[in-house]
UniProtKB/TrEMBL annotation:
PANTHER family: APOPTOSIS-INDUCING FACTOR 1, SLR1591 PROTEIN
Domain of life: Bacteria
Keywords linked to the UniProt accession: FAD, Flavoprotein, Oxidoreductase
Family matches, as SUPFAM superfamilies: FAD/NAD(P)-binding domain (SSF51905)
Protein name: Pyridine nucleotide-disulfide oxidoreductase
Cofactor(s) required, per the database record: FAD
Pfam families (alphabetical): Pyr_redox_2 (PF07992)
GO biological process, one term: aerobic electron transport chain
Amino acid sequence: MRHLVLIGGGHAHVHVLKQFGDRPLADAEVTLVGRDIETPYSGMIPGFVAGLYSFEECHIDLARLCQRAHARLVHAEATGIDRAARRVLLKDRPALDYDLLSIDVGSAPNVGTIERAEQGAIPVKPIAELGRRWLEFCGRMETWLGPLNVMVIGGGAGGVELALAIDHRLRDVAKAADLQVTLVTKDEILMGQAQAARRRLRAIFQRRGIRLLEQSGAERIERGAVRLADGQWHQADAVFVVTEASAAPWFADTGLPLDERGFLAVDATLASTGDDRIFAAGDCATVLEHRRPKAGVFAVRQGPPLADNLRRVLNGEQPQPFVPQRRYLSILGTGDGRAVATRGSWAIEGRWVWWWKDHIDRKWMRMYR
Ligand SMILES: Cc1cc2nc3c(=O)[nH]c(=O)nc-3n(C[C@H](O)[C@H](O)[C@H](O)COP(=O)(O)OP(=O)(O)OC[C@H]3O[C@@H](n4cnc5c(N)ncnc54)[C@H](O)[C@@H]3O)c2cc1C
């Protein structure tokens, strides 16, 4: 009996568990180590913030998936790997032995460049924590009177969607407040996406009265204010940081090859380039031959090839390479029941685009419930 340990209930591992439930493995034991039992589906989180989805609608119950896959669930946080002894180190729990290991623990916004971000901002990752803090925050805003300044730092897809979702929800919740949502970003919004998408989103921000400060990196967060790169302080009663993804610090102690930003370096089969007993997928891994943005859509796509390759290795076969697509459809919800879709150089907007996104996301969730 060999032991496969999956660390993290990210999007790719959710598929691995589903596939093992559909087609059980012979002669292998599977354990999932998860920090959160209910894992969020990133595509629906801005919709949750906007009040369009309930908590249950956008979270997957890992306990049920594990039960179906005959996998053991260990509710714990992995803190390291002792590769010589082939053990996964856990916080406040004994270590776990493995024969084969797969890591899908996601990423967290890089807050290292913003002074006092950890003390002064509401973290967007872990997303489970964001959900709890957001509901608490909305509760407090119901009775807020007068000016209410909310700042979102980070102009990637996550930051853009979050700013629009926050604006939509607070207009409903904080009725007595004089609301101003501001998005600040050190470059342009939606870097790497089509110019047409940037134009549309800028027009939507303007129409909705959301302030957009591009080429304005945040430098320091104090209670009630944020200092930007030009030295100006801006009032902020609440700050959300959605800056570029950063890797878990414990990867550096594993001795595994990392990319230049500290993410696990894997080859096209998703195996570590330095240890063929360790696979990694999703945000936490960088496929050196096929670099792609850190986005949920790629983590989702890696699920089927990861499941197949783990099965192959357990059967004594060679894992097969996987080439992710280069151009991909990105649909950004604007929080108000509309969305912008972009692929390659085009972008379209409308209510039907939101229905399309909603259909895709709900269909995905149904597969893993
Ligand atoms: C506000 C926001 C909105 C976003 N919207 C979109 C979007 O619409 N579309 C899109 O494609 N991307 C979106 N993203 C990006 C998206 O969240 C990530 O790319 C995606 O979640 C990565 O998936 P993953 O499988 O790598 O990891 P995650 O989804 O982050 O899952 C990681 C899992 O591992 C667990 N875990 C973490 N550390 C440990 C540990 N040490 N031990 C055990 N378990 C651990 C966590 O509990 C979690 O269950 C958004 C991001 C944010 C912040």
